[in-house]
Automatic annotation (TrEMBL):
InterPro entries: DctP_fam (IPR018389), TRAP_DctP (IPR004682), TRAP_DctP_sf (IPR038404). Residues 1-31 form the signal peptide. This is C4-dicarboxylate ABC transporter. Pfam families: DctP. The keyword DNA-binding does not apply. The lineage of its organism: Bacteria, Pseudomonadati, Pseudomonadota, Gammaproteobacteria, Oceanospirillales. Keywords: Signal. The keyword Secreted does not apply.
Length: 334
């Protein structure tokens, strides 16, 4: 009897020991589930690039990290998502640098109207040492920028008339992204700026809460704003970089090897995004034209630029520590 009991007990112990090993093994291979924020619909260039990022990371880490992208802004508006990624509630995201300004003052340099002469200049600047300086500023706020996406040039559109001179903006109610700098931008042109979440713009245009907004061709088209706002004027006042950013807390948990894999996947995603962007910008332009949008050139952009001077002056006066970086961004394009 006694021997029997001892045998039974030792069997039970063995079973427990094996179960223990099994759970230890399963713990060590348990995947990190990463939640990623994305504002755009799945067919948008950025969304497709984020999906490739997710796939490449899962594959090359043998499933140690399993990123999942949530499209269409279902995880919240951009300013909230920035906060959530900073505190680690979200693990990665594609953020525009526009709404980043209130949190990372240095990134407001990228929002100074006409700071970049062309999207190519923007890429060149952001891919070099200057881009690193912006990445450092982001990291201080717990966001690790691994690569830079493009977003073309943003132009003004509205429901009423073509804009060819600053005077044409007078009295227009224009939606802007969440950033005081853009409020000032529209004020300087004599319009009334309304900061508003992207998801609310369509309805607000339709109901006349606002007369217009500003964005690039792919967003103007994919958001449906072109269905309501039939005048798209090529002011091209903002050329904003976007990041593929990872929450610092998620990043710091990774082994050096996995950090390398994630960084490489983000850089590959940026190459893909930039390629897809070119195609999509043209498709979107054609689509809105076919739908009856009137696109007009702005012959004298310098008139708009001149109105923006107070924004530069105020920015440098309130951030003297950032003046050198403003100058460096400009000098890098000469
Ligand atoms: C898009 C950008 C989004 C968002 C949006 C907006 O061009 O890709 O991240 O910033 O504009 O106007 O809110």
């Amino acid at each position: 009897m006694l021997t029997n009991k001892i045998i039974k007990t030792s069997r039970t112990l063995k079973v427990f020991a094996l179960a223990g090993i099994a759970s230890a093994v399963s713990m060590s291979v348990q995947a990190e589930q990463w939640r990623g924020w994305n504002i755009h619909p799945p067919s948008y260039p950025n969304s497709m690039a984020l999906e490739s990022f997710a796939e490449e990371v899962a594959e090359n880490t043998d499933g140690r990290i399993e990123p999942k992208v949530y499209h269409n802004g279902v995880l919240g508006a951009q300013p909230d998502a920035i906060e959530q990624t900073r505190n680690g509630a979200l693990n990665f995201a594609n953020f525009n640098m526009g709404p980043m300004g209130p949190i990372v003052p240095a990134t407001n340099i990228l929002s100074l109207p006409f700071i970049f002469q062309s999207p190519d200049d923007m890429y060149r600047v952001m891919d070099g040492d200057i881009g690193e300086r912006f990445a450092e500023a982001l990291e201080e706020k717990n966001l690790v920028a691994l690569s830079w996406f493009g977003s073309g040039a943003r132009s003004l559109y509205n429901t009423d008339h073509p804009v060819t001179t600053p005077g044409d903006v007078e009295g227009l109610k224009v939606r802007v992204m969440n950033n005081d700098l853009y409020v000032q931008m529209i004020d300087e042109l004599g319009g009334n700026a309304t900061p508003m979440a992207y998801s609310e713009v369509y309805q607000s245009l339709k109901t006349g809460v606002i007369d217009g907004a500003e964005n690039n061709y792919p967003s103007f088209e994919s958001s449906g704003h072109y269905e309501v706002a039939k005048y798209y004027s090529l002011t091209e006042h903002l050329i904003l970089p976007e990041c593929l950013c990872v929450a610092k807390s998620s990043w710091d948990e990774l082994s050096e090897q996995d950090q390398g894999i994630v960084r490489e996947a983000a850089q590959n995603a940026a190459v893909e995004q930039r390629r897809l962007w070119e195609e999509r910008a043209e498709t979107s332009r054609q689509r809105v034209l076919d739908d009856g949008v009137e696109i007009n050139e702005v012959a004298d952009k310098s008139a708009f630029q001149a109105e923006m001077q107070p924004i530069y002056d105020d920015f440098v006066a309130s951030h003297p520590d950032l003046e050198a970086l403003v100058e460096d961004v400009r000098a890098a394009q000469e």
